[in-house]
Design a protein that fits this description.
Low-confidence stretches: 1-28, 378-382
InterPro entries: MdtA-like_b-barrel, MdtA-like_BSH, MdtA-like_C, MdtA-like_HH, RND_pump_MFP
Oligomer: single chain
Strand content: 35-45%
Subcellular location: Cell inner membrane
Domain Multidrug resistance protein MdtA-like C-terminal permuted SH3: 300-360
Membrane topology: Lipid-anchor
Strand order of the largest sheet: 2-9-12-11-10-13
Order of helices and strands: HHEEEEEHHEEEEHEEEEEEEEEEH
Pfam family, one: BSH_RND
Number of strands: 19
CATH superfamily of the largest domain: RNA polymerase II/Efflux pump adaptor protein, barrel-sandwich hybrid domain
Number of domains: 3
């Protein structure tokens, strides 16, 4: 029913055009039959890979915040801002003197606990044979045994305190948690850090590879699925992507990582993420890019110049073709995707049809014409 309505609308529009072109000047019929020269292109089929350009933003693959894990005064900054750093590389040095003192104190506490343990072990060893002959009371033996257990626990606690002190001493050397590019230093020498909170000192971002996050209208995604399901398109390499920076010739190939499973209710868009190599560091976080995503392929696509497609008042598309006896015919068509300066025609044209692309002004269906190949088509034949 929708096609009949569209065809009827186009027919009515064509009749209106024809009536508008008829004047009351009373020119001789022979003059009206003079063939008008028009530019035409002969329709041919060609393989077509459909792509769409979508806006996106660059995001780093990994981001690490460099934070102070112990309190102290920063005594040295050991990196160049904006440089690439390796995981484990020393970035800041916090004054280690107080932490070294803490380690020494913990070592002393451990030695004291070990001495108490040695004493408790010796006491139990002495009491054990004596309690059997009742030279020592059972109560004294039980007390000695409890003191031994307490001494062992004290040693374990002192060992843990020493390990914590050594860890904190290690944290005084603030190192890069990942490899990547480091930004500006957020603290300077002499700053007190880690006092009550883990102070942010710098950020490192891994920029090779990078992610490109972009969105696609859910309506376009559904149309693509319908075209693939109906056989108008065949699925190509749906994982291959390319990326470009607006205003430059920069191009980089990548791959699609995933398509989000939900649609943003506010925008009607679905989110996608691609991954791109970035060895030269040209792609920076937050940069606006254009992502070219494949949408499928048509092995026998029909493409016509954009200027050949006209629209009726209700938006239906038609083209003017050279028909029988070299006269103009209006042909309703269904347009697909725009590829450069050409429309893909999914219905309404066949290979060999001659589509009028030049001399369209005032041209009416039924007019006698003299078709001339366009310069582009002549060049393609040479």
């Amino acid at each position: 029913m929708g096609r009949l309505r569209a065809a009827g609308t186009i027919s009515a529009w064509v009749v209106a055009m024809a009536l508008a072109g008829c004047g009351a000047s009373g020119e001789p019929e022979a003059a009206a039959e003079q063939a008008r020269p028009v530019d035409v292109v002969a329709v041919t089929t060609e393989p077509l890979v459909l792509t769409t350009e979508l806006p996106g933003r660059i995001e780093p693959v990994r981001v690490a915040e460099v934070r102070a894990r112990v309190a102290g005064i920063v005594v040295q900054k050991r990196f160049e801002e904006g440089a690439d750093v390796k995981a484990g590389e020393l970035l800041f040095q916090i004054d280690p003197a107080p932490l070294k003192a803490t380690v020494s104190r913990a070592e002393g506490e451990l030695a004291r606990a070990e001495a108490s343990l040695f004493e408790a072990q010796a006491r139990v060893k002495r009491y054990k044979p004596l309690v059997k002959i009742e030279a020592v009371s059972q109560q004294d033996f039980d007390t000695a045994t409890a003191d031994l257990r307490s001494a062992k626990a004290a040693v374990r606690s002192a060992q843990a305190d020493l390990e914590t002190a050594r860890l904190n001493l290690g944290y005084a050397s603030v190192k890069a948690p990942i490899s990547g590019r480091i930004g500006r230093a957020l603290v300077t020498e002499g700053a007190l850090v880690g006092q009550g909170e883990t102070t942010l000192m710098a950020r490192i971002q891994q920029l090779d590879p990078v992610y490109a996050d972009f969105t696609q209208p859910v309506a376009d995604a559904l149309r693509l699925r319908e075209a693939l399901k109906g056989g108008q398109l065949s699925a190509g390499d749906s994982q291959a992507l390319s990326i470009g920076i607006e205003g430059t010739d920069y191009q980089r190939q990548g791959e699609l990582l995933f398509t989000d499973v939900s649609v943003d209710p506010g925008t009607g868009q679905v989110s996608l993420r691609g991954k791109f190599a970035n060895p030269d560091g040209m792609l920076l976080p937050g940069m606006y890019v254009r992502v070219s995503a494949p949408q499928g392929s048509d092995a026998q696509a029909i493409l016509v110049p954009q200027r050949a497609v006209q629209r009726s008042p209700d938006g239906s598309a038609l083209v003017l073709v050279v028909g029988a006896d070299e006269r103009v015919e209006a042909r309703p068509v269904h347009t697909g995707a725009m590829q450069g300066s050409r429309w893909q025609i999914s219905q309404g044209l066949a290979s060999g049809d001659r589509v009028i692309v030049g001399g369209l002004t005032g041209l009416q269906p039924g007019t006698k014409v003299e078709p001339r190949p366009t310069q582009e088509q002549q060049a393609s034949r040479q």
